[in-house]
Amino acid sequence: MRTETSPVVRLSEYRPTEYAIDNVDLDIRLVPEASSVKARLSLSRRDGTAEGTPLILDGDGLALKGLLLNGMGVADDACTVTPDRLTIHAPPADPFVLEIATALNPSANKALMGLYRSNGVYTTQCEAEGFRRITYFSDRPDVLSVYTTRIEARKSEAPILLGNGNPVLAGDIAGTDRHFALWHDPHPKPSYLFAVVGGDLDAVHDTFTTASGRVVKLAIYCEHGKKDRCAYAMDALKRSMRWDEERFGREYDLDVFNIVAVSDFNMGAMENKGLNVFNDKYVLVDPQTGTDQDYAHVEAVIAHEYFHNWTGNRITCRDWFQLCLKEGLTVFRDQEFSADQRSRPVKRIADVAALRQHQFPEDAGPLAHPVRPETYREINNFYTATVYEKGAEVCRMLQTILGEEGFRDGLDLYFRRHDGDAATIEDFLACFADSSGADLRQFALWYEQAGTPIVSVRHDFDADRQTLTMTFQQSVPETPDGKAKKPMHIPLRFGLVGPDGQDLRYGHVSGGRVEKGVIHLTDAAATFTFSGLTARPVPSLLRGFSAPVRLEDNLSIDDRFFLVSHDPDPFSRWEAAQQIALTMLQDATAKLRQGERPTFDPRFAEALGRLADNDGLDPAFRALALTLPGETEVAQAIGDDVDPDAIHAARRALLTETGSAIATLVGEAVDRNAPPATFRPEAEDAGRRALRHAAWALSLAADKAAAGRIAEFYEQAETLTDRVAALRLLVHYRSGEAERALANFYDRYRDNPLVLDKWFAIQATAPGAQTLERVEALTAHPAFSMATPNRVYALIRSFAAANPTGFNRADGAGYRFLTGVIATLDKDNPSVAARLATGFGSFAMLEERRRTAAQAALKALGASANLSRDVADIVERTLGGEVSNA
Ligand code: BES
Ligand code: ZN
């Protein structure tokens, strides 16, 4: 594998560059197969750099066409040039200007990094290390420069030319069919935030007046014919801009803010300064072609990228180890935005469910790493659930520990102190420590230690003494780095729920710090005693999921049922039901593997029925309560010797049992809470639709004959959300009506790639061994293309990441299929290929036959020639560093 030649980058070896690049003037000529770039860099020696220290610039597959130093040619022996590096052996002592000309072929760029063409639109993607595919540069986040960009193209091919910052000048080039635009970005920025776009694009325009009264011109650009689907994104943008002013005091800082939606994009979206580039899936929605989930995603991603303007752009990262400094904090901010725009508890539950589905398995497997990693071979592989989602949880804990005001004070100091800097996690934490006086040294372990802490707690109530004793222990499981773990600072929000469902007041607390409803665990073991309790409380711990831990307690099943009905914290009510379901599903899985029939406590269905029937509760919350933990979560809870088929059968059995008991009751609740006939994207209506779909699922689980009615729902659906929900149920239950509905769906939406992606994903996630053949057949479908990341994600990643029984087929054919796809894709697009390879992240906990098959497939992939660094890195770490040329 190539990993032998790809060096390890270490946080401990960070050093600033020898030279600063203060100004970058770019002249970019867009031509489909022969674009050219002239870069004029103003460089200067940093303090402490000895005269004559060589200048080393990064490149990646570049073709140099010209090189001038202070306007003069550079002798062959004064520099060394390769496609991946440019070295000037002895640069001048005084500030100097380097002019570099490179030639690019954006049409041949299949990796979608650097400058590429998507559907005739020129666009760039530079994070993390894509700028070096455009010109030679110090392509790292601590080199901040002021950019001026001139873009030139044929007028008919690219009437729209966009760059970072503010537009300065534009015009025709006399005597030619070409024109140009000049952009200037006054804010110094790292190269990863650079972008240009050129193309024949349509746009929606609007304005936003900032808190201080400046008028900002807003635009969202898209391909022709798609403009009508940009309205909601524009609305979300304006709400994001207002929210960031109100909640965090952050105002926008340029005259224009542009968003471009493109159809081929590796990621979700990118926060380039003043010119965000989006995967069009996170921009384009309208009532006919967007589901409720799509609307929520558009809102969240628009907000996320906009929020980066302060958390990421104005203050960026010193090095890529600090990635969570911008991503974790910005995810926290977008989560808070969505919570404020929609329902706070519903958003929290959805985020926790996602954390458990994606981040917990990562943290428990071979790819586990700290929120701030200490080494990497390929930074592209560290845009992970841990950096993002756990990174956001760490910010949330900081807010829990310091209080909302204390957190805001610390963040204000961060913006004041570090505006214009490339900062570190230490810088960030120092702001909170300095503004609050808190000692955050132990808290910093959240950035350093991989693995999900386990908190175990025993509750003992002493009626005579009127005391409750809680005995805690915390530990962090072993992780791939083999490091010994220290106890962490874990904030546990809690309440002691009395018999009437109200939180009981308590008197004295001994054993540690308990403040404002939060228990602070800081030691490996601790015993807290709460006195003055006149009745036996049921402790409700980890309210709002106040820390990303696994909590193991000794609550009785009766106590849990009590919390489902009575906990004042909605998150904890949901959580109590999830924990009951998880325990039952684990037991049922074990029984099924021994050939026994599973049985379930009937109180579970009754409890869910009471929640569903309670019109005092938000329908969206009720829908979540009716959703059982996913198969991945059950697998995680079991932990080893996992048999995905047994888990699936257990979950289906519990669904059937629950549906038989309460489907009718839930159906009545749905009738009382029907959404209005015309579509509105509002959370309230979306919740009503979600409740309706939960009812459909329960009725189908209870009785296969319900498929007929669901097929009718499919036909009569007024919204795409309803139509997709019905189709998914028909296909996932392999109903007789499924094929007809699939054909109908294809005919309806064949011209809309984003909707067609749902058609692929629904088929790819149908449970069962036979889905592999369907997925293989779909790779040959005329609408499938390996060159379109969204299509690959819809079909292949859905299959590998969201179909445990299909992908983990006992004969191992799912694994061999995936490695085959990865090997093919890797030749063109390593970053998408590497993302698919993370599908093996939990293979070690599978039962032996599957584990062996997965390992063999991975080893074979690892042994193939010319693997990208991206894929080689994932394969090697997944296999646990074993030499894999078997
Ligand atoms: N900065 C990232 C985009 C990115 C990711 C660039 C990986 C290069 C490599 C952007 O801000 C981001 O985080 N996008 C997310 C969506 C977001 C809502 C979490 C994405 O693209 O998935
Ligand atoms: Zn981001």
Give an account of the 3D structure.
Helix content is 40%, strand content 21%. Helix 3 (323-341) crosses helix 5 and helix 5 (385-418) crosses helix 6. The longest helix has 34 residues, at 385-418. With 886 residues, it is of the alpha+beta class. The strands form 8 sheets. It has an 8-stranded mixed beta sheet, with no helix packed on it. The protein has a 5-stranded mixed beta sheet with strand order 17-18-19-21-20, with helices on one face. Strands 28-31-26-25-33 form a 5-stranded mixed beta sheet, with no helix packed on it. The protein has 25 helices and 33 strands. A hairpin with a 2-residue loop joins strand 10 (114-118) and strand 11 (121-125). The chain is globular. Residues 882-886 have low confidence and may be disordered. Bound molecules: ligand BES and zinc ion (ZN).
